[in-house]
Design brief:
Helices cover 75% and strands 2% of the residues. By secondary structure, it is mostly helical. It has a single domain, classed as Rhodopsin 7-helix transmembrane proteins (Rhopdopsin 7-helix transmembrane proteins), CATH 1.20.1070.10. It comes from Nestor notabilis.
């Protein structure tokens, strides 16, 4: 159905709304890109920072960088312009990369939860090392690529939506839209519902269980009277790290919830969103989801004193290098 185009002449956002959206997206992109790149570089430069958790955090940042570069600019331009200007390859690749990045992000958080669980709840059991972290990263990138392949297959360019317009026909004469063209509605619903389960519901449920058990375990240890100062200090550090990681997970889940709800409504009750508010609702939900790219550097980076020191050192190093050249 192309009914979203029928009210095109009365659904244009105001100049103020467009300006606010562009400003917000630009701010999110800059913070996400700069913060995540700095986080990756700092973890790479500091040998003592290269533990399992930090390597997985760097992987999470890498997926966020991909979204900032490949997905945000394209989505903003397409939403505001209402026609596609980036060619057939980008039509297929943009959604494909966004799906990969989201899957990599959530499963990086899953691996971090597993690592924290083994470290705290099962300290005498199997402990993942750096080699395991890299193998885990390789696996989740491969898994993410495989489950995102339908975006490559079923996205295509078409001028069909603009044939139904009775206004601005000359302007849209040679314009195209980038749409999902599935063989049947049933197949599309099966895929999008499965994606919701494997990209959002199941991983977050698993992470919740891991951190719940970690919380219970730390509470029990805190209640013991015969702990020594060293153990108390270690317990406090574990709590600090866990609270930071839980904050990242909760904020990630909250950021992606509106867009997931929007997509579910769009998939199962298409007509409910076919109004002048469709583009605005999607854009707001998408913007909130993109804020998740800033979560990692803010919680793990800018609020971390060690990261702040490393960031100052990195900026100073870049200035010295630039002045020498």
């Amino acid at each position: 159905s192309y009914s979203q185009f029928l009210n095109f002449d009365t659904c244009q956002p105001s100049f103020l709304a467009e300006s606010l959206l562009i400003t917000a997206y630009t701010l999110v992109t800059l913070v996400g890109l700069f913060g995540n790149l700095c986080l990756i570089v700092i973890i790479k430069r500091r040998k003592e920072a290269q533990n399992v958790t930090n390597i997985l955090i760097a992987n999470l940042s890498l997926s966020d960088v991909l979204i900032c570069i490949m997905c945000i600019p394209v989505t903003v331009a397409y939403t505001l312009m209402d026609y596609w200007i980036f060619g057939e390859v980008m039509c297929k690749v943009s959604s494909f990369i966004q799906s990969i990045s989201v899957t990599v992000s959530i499963f990086s958080l899953v691996l971090i939860a597993i690592e924290r669980y083994q470290l705290i709840v099962n300290p005498r059991g199997w402990k993942p090392n750096i080699s395991h972290a890299y193998w885990g990263i390789l696996f989740i990138w491969g898994f993410s690529l495989i489950i995102s392949i339908p975006f490559l297959i079923f996205h295509q360019l078409t001028d069909e939506p603009f044939k139904h317009l009775s206004f601005h026909s000359d302007f849209y004469k040679n314009k195209v839209a980038c749409i999902e063209a599935w063989p049947s509605v049933t197949e599309r619903l099966i895929f999008t519902t499965s994606l919701l389960v494997f990209q959002y519901c199941f991983p977050l449920g698993f992470i919740f269980i891991c951190y719940l058990r970690i919380f219970v375990c730390l509470r029990r240890r805190h209640g013991k009277i015969d702990r020594i100062r060293e153990n108390e200090s270690r317990l406090s550090e574990n709590k600090r790290i866990n609270m930071m990681l839980i904050s990242i997970v909760v904020t990630f889940a909250a950021c992606w919830l509106p867009l997931n709800v929007f997509n579910v409504v769009f998939d199962w009750n298409y007509e409910a969103l076919m109004s002048c508010n469709h583009n605005l609702a999607f854009t707001i939900c998408h913007l909130v989801a993109m804020i998740s790219t800033c979560v990692n550097p803010i919680f793990y980076g800018f609020l971390n004193k060690n990261f702040q020191k490393d960031l100052v050192g990195l900026v100073h190093h870049c200035r010295c290098t630039a002045s020498q050249e």
